[in-house]
Amino acid sequence: MDLHILEHRVRVLSLARRGLWLYTHPLLKLLFLPQRCRCKFFSLTETPEDYTVMLDEEGFKELPPSEFMQVADSTWLVLSVVSNGREPPGCQATGVTKIARSVIAPLAEHHVSVLMLSTYQTDFILVRERDLPVVIHTLAGEFDIYREESGECVPVTCDDVSNGFLKPKPATSPTLHPVQSPQTRFCVLTVAPDTLPAIATMLIDVLFYSHSPPREAGAGSQDLDSITFFSFSLIEGYISIVMDAETQKRFPSDLLLTSSTGELWRMVRIGGQPLGFDECGIVAQIAEPLAAADISAYYISTFNFDHASPRRASPRSSSCCSSGRTAADNGCPQAGWPSTVAQWGPPSSPPPATPIFIIFQF
Hints:
- The protein has eight helices and 20 strands.
- It has 362 residues and is α+β, with helices and mostly antiparallel strands.
- The longest helix has 11 residues, at 282-292.
- It is globular and about 50 Å long.
């Protein structure tokens, strides 16, 4: 397999819901007119507390600084695993668990925090730019590594980054986080880029005018009946959307492309307080046991919390969707989890990396 370091240099930020009015115009430009700002990597995820935005430097220029915007202090690079050549556009990926042992687990052992962004088409692994030397030294034995420069793939070797290599840090103690299990069901879908204008009005209404009152981070009830979550990604021309089943009904069904079985997923929300970006290992804690059981999972990292969602139905399947760095220490949460405390990893492993929302299907 090959590991590609994409050209995108990504910023991760949070927009306060009360300040959304200030960013409506630039976000609409990024959503519907990316060619006007030359943005090629854009993801917007709505949660009850805020909006998480991941976007490249060209897109970041469109967002004015303000008291309503909180930006992670690091620039993130995007990694993509390619097997037997680049995956054909539009096909559903096999899920992040398929690369858990070869990418995510080794990075966790070397204390590298990752963000995950799974889309309908593929999976992306985001690492801090300053961690790239460790990433390359850690994965060079398993992958042929290439860096994309001006549309060309240039081989990368350990010698290219030897001056920045850092030895892995010792593991830290596990962390405990409360969990919630709302009743909302979610679906993962895409639309053809040329049909995006046909759903533009509905997207604007859902993203900017239909939201619930803002909640403070960590102030949520432990027995929520539902949860606000909507994620839209436009990356290199391909669109991916995660929405709840009720919201899906508002869109014209003939324009939404879903999997042939149309599965729905339950979400488990993890974390009583914002989790931060420095902890590492949670994606590995969840992905490794799922990979061992041949169960895939897609992730979407958010700024504050983790969310995990097992599929509602019981038959095992190979596709899933998610957003957040989350997991129980058995690696396989069950539908209808009670509000309780989950242990993140065995005693010898580091605590979670960054907040992620996960949707499992098994």
